[in-house]
Every structure is written in structure tokens, then in C-alpha cells.
Amino acid sequence: MPAPILETPRLRLRPHVLTDIAPFWAFYQTERAQFVNPTSDYQTFWDGFLAEVGSWEMTGHGSWAVETKEGALAGQVSIAHPPVFPEQEIGWIFFEEFEGKGYAFEAAQAALHWAWAHLPITTLVSYIDPAIARSIALARRLGAVKDTQAARPNGETAEECSVYRHVPDADGSPEAYA
Amino acid sequence: MLPSTLHTSRLVLRAFCLDDQEAYVAYYTGPRTAGVGGAKPRYQVVERFHAMAGQWALRGFGRYAVTLDGRAIGHVGVLQMDDSDPLELTWSLWDSAHEGQGYATEAARAVLAAWQGPPLIAQIDASNAASLRVAARLGFVAAPDLPAHPLMPDGVSFRAPAEDTTCPA
User: What DSSP character marks residue A9?
Assistant: First the structure.
């Protein structure tokens, strides 16, 4: 099964397509990618990007491209569990020109709601570099709580990686903000 | 540009599934990858395994699991990373126990016969005698004019034979 299409008021989460590769490869070459395991090696990028496309067939979850209703590619949201992650993660990448509009919140919230309804899970984590205040603010706004006891990827320290834990009853559902 | 499943007299070529993963990991963390860039750590191999499914989703063609009696013993199919890259027919048997029985040739021939698209190439390390024999049986023609594979310092490039010289599987 490919990624299901999820509609939000302003965005569409959809399966990645070929033409998404170039903008993400370009993103990975920028300073902005320093917090998401940047790589200058195309094969490494390709394997990582396509693994989260192909994992939909293998494991029933993976990445979504996030585009505006006008069709502009804004970033991606991904539910992934690569071997280096102790737990299943929800992560996000948004391009700079789409920041500050609440798009990442809107997209990640839709992905969380889908996950709670469709995956056999009761929790997800977000591994975030403590230096990215904007991403930490987003995790909190989504209802995630910092979990200082959780294992971190690759033996990273608390200074290198904060773990934010999402659970279904704290997911920032629309009702909670009504 | 390729069907989701292909059948040969002895093999079924099908999409990868999670049950195939550990056999692929054993292959790609082991010595049989010497001709394709060398062994990789497990986390990279798992990514690459899932990425093979990802290429199918994005391009409509890719690599199949080569299965014998329901068990994956290798992969075969068409790889293309960047749009500007040539379309490469790749084949690999994951365990030496399956070599010498014509499985790789049988699987690759089925893909060649089914392929509808631009001409395919193959790139093989000069030390990989078994794979060079498969290329010869398939009728691949040496193409020294093609650029070398970045991971194969001693790589030899080939072009697939014209369609009408491919023997039926």
C-alpha cells in the first residue's frame, strides 16, 4: 500500500513522486539539513529517501510528501523505524520558505491522527537536536512530552538528542484547541 | 515498465517483502559484495532493502526478489537512481550455494524479455568471473565507451543485446 492521501485545511499529504527527489536532494546540501543527518553522497541520500517510500510496502508506514493545496512542495512528514532508532519515530522536514505558517503542525497532526487510527502502536517519539528550538516547539504543540528516560539513536547524549514522546490522548487534536 | 511478477521455469520474480530482509542483510554484510562496493553495516543495508521497494513506487520498475520454492535467493532487475543515470540491469545471488545452476541467467533473461524501455546496460567488476559469465550468456556486449561505475574501479561496462537476439526464457 502506498502512503494514503491525507487532506488538511491547507495541505495535502501524498505519496512521494519522482519529481520530489531533486528538491530534497537540494535541501540535504544546505546548512539547514545539519540536524537531519546530512549527506553529500547521492547513494546515501537515495537509500534514505527511498527507504521511507518503500517502507510503505514493507511495513505499512513511511514518508508523505506535504504540498499546499496549490501543489507547492513544502516538505515531508515521516513515520519511520530504521535500525538506528530504538523506537518508531515521527519526523518532519519543511523547506525554509514554508516555515512560520503552521504547516508543519498541520501536517504532523494529520499524520499522528492517521497513525493512532491505523497503526498497531500506542506511542511514537521524535528525536530532535536540542538546538532546533522551532522543532521542539512543534513537538510540544503536538502534545509530545520530553522523555529523559528514553533510549536515543546511535548512543547519542542528551546534549545531542532530545526525545519527545507522543501518545494518542495528548496529540493536540483539534478539540484540544477549540 | 515491468510487470510486478515474472515466472521462469524454476523461479518466481516478485516484489520484496519483509520476510526477505534478513537474507538480504546476510548477503550485504558479507563477503559476496566485494564486486559491488563491499560489505555495509546492517543499518545501511536495511535502508537499501527498503529503497529497492521505493524505486518501484517512484519509477514503476525496479529489482525483484528472485525466489526459489518461495524463498528469496537473490535480486534481479533494473536500477536507476538519478534521472540522468543509465538504466542498469543488475543481478545477484545472495549465497554461493545457489551459484553454478543458471539461476542468475534465468532470472536476468526473464527481466530482459519483459523490459519495455530504453536500452539497458550492465556494470560488472573485472574480478567477478561468475557475473561476467552471466553477461556473456545473456548476450551483453562490452561497451568501453560507457562511463565507469563509481563504486567499481575495475568495472567493465556492457550493453544489453538487441531485443531479437535474446533467447526466450
Answer: S
Global confidence as pTM: 0.90
Q: Residues B18-72: pLDDT tens digits?
A: 999 999 999 999 999 887 888 999 999 999 999 999 999 999 999 999 999 999 9
Can you tell me the distance from the alpha carbon of B169 to that of B153, in angstroms, rounded to the nearest whole number?
Answer: 32
pLDDT tens digits, A79-95: 999 999 999 999 999 99
- DSSP letter for A72, please: -
Residues 49-68 of A with CB under 8 A from B: 49-59
Tell me the count of A-B CB pairs closer than 8 A. Answer: 77
The angle that helices A21-28 and A42-59 make with each other, rounded to 10 degrees, is: 130
B53 vs A82: CB contact, 8 Å cut-off?
no
DSSP assignment of A124-165, as one string? EEEEE-TT-HHHHHHHHHTT-EE-TTS--GGG--TTT-EEEE
